[in-house]
Amino acid sequence: MAVAARLAAFSALILFFELAFIRYTSAYVRVFGFYQNFVLIATFLGMGVGLMRAKSADTLKWVGVPALVALVGAVYYFSHASIAVPRSPDEYVWGIFTEREGAKQLPLLPVVAALFALCALFFLPLGASLGAQFRRLPALRAARRLVQRARADRASA
User: Fold this and answer.
1) Measured between alpha carbons, how far is 132 from 115 in angstroms, rounded to an integer?
2) Pairing with 69, which of 1, 119, 133, 152 sits 20 to 30 Å away (CA)?
3) 51-99 residue pLDDT tens
4) Helix (H), strand (E) at residue 152
5) How far apart are CA 129 and CA 56, in angstroms?
6) Contact 121, 46 (CB under 8 A)
7) Spatial CB neighbours of 145, under 8 Å, sequence gap ≥ 6
8) How far apart are CA 143 and CA 91, in angstroms?
9) Per DSSP, what are the bridge partners of residue 88?
10) Are 38 and 109 in contact (CB under 8 A)?
11) Residue 81 DSSP one-character state
């Protein structure tokens, strides 16, 4: 029963941080409010890679805190910068990005790429810990039979 509780706790923690990062990044880096799906995609990427690296959960768990500090630092830095949005007649980003005096000009792509990478990096150890809990559960018999049947069909073909 303890494995199921830890599995539920890691799942809830991932969901909590996913929703918190969606709100936090778009609140402080205003241009990221138009790209909220990037946080969602980064969450699934980090969690998915972490699930694949479940055997390394003990070593990956130390990545979480530095990644969180780096993400919060990047959001703080980008919130004080002026992000240059590409001017295109096909897109309109609501004109909220006025030039600030003394603010450093940053292009949009590096800002989005940095926040995406740091967000994915944060979810890597959470996904690995989730995968480690999945590995402790017994395999489903029905799924095992389907895999065996598929292998037998492939071998006979």
Assistant:
1) 27
2) 133
3) 999 999 889 989 999 999 999 999 999 888 877 766 666 655 555 555 5
4) helix 141-156
5) 9
6) yes
7) none
8) 47
9) 91
10) no
11) S
CA 22 to chain centre: 10
| Amino acid sitting at position 121 | L
Residues in the chain: 157
Rounded distance, CA 81 to CA 83, Å?
Answer: 6
In this structure, is the dihedral angle defined by the CA atoms of residues 102, 107, 108 and 113, taken in order, positive or negative? negative
In the structure encoding, which two tokens stand for residue 138, read together? Answer: 């017994």
Q: What residue has token string 């292998």?
A: 151
Cα distances (Å, whole numbers) of residue 132 to 1, 10, 28, 50, 106:
15, 10, 34, 9, 40
Give the three-class secondary structure for 92.
Answer: coil
Which pLDDT tens digit goes with each residue over 2-49? 888 898 999 999 999 999 999 999 888 877 777 778 889 999 999 999
Flag whether the pTM goes above 0.85: no
The residue type of 83 is: I
DSSP-assigned letter for residue 85: P
User: Tokens 């292009």 correspond to what residue?
Assistant: 107
Q: Tell me the residue type at 38.
A: F
Residue 131 near residue 12, CB atoms below 8 Å: no
Work out the end-to-end distance of the chain between its first and last CA atoms, rounded to an integer number of angstroms. 42
- Letter for the amino acid at 8? A
Residue written as token pair 């402790």? 136
Domain coverage including residue 104: 2-156
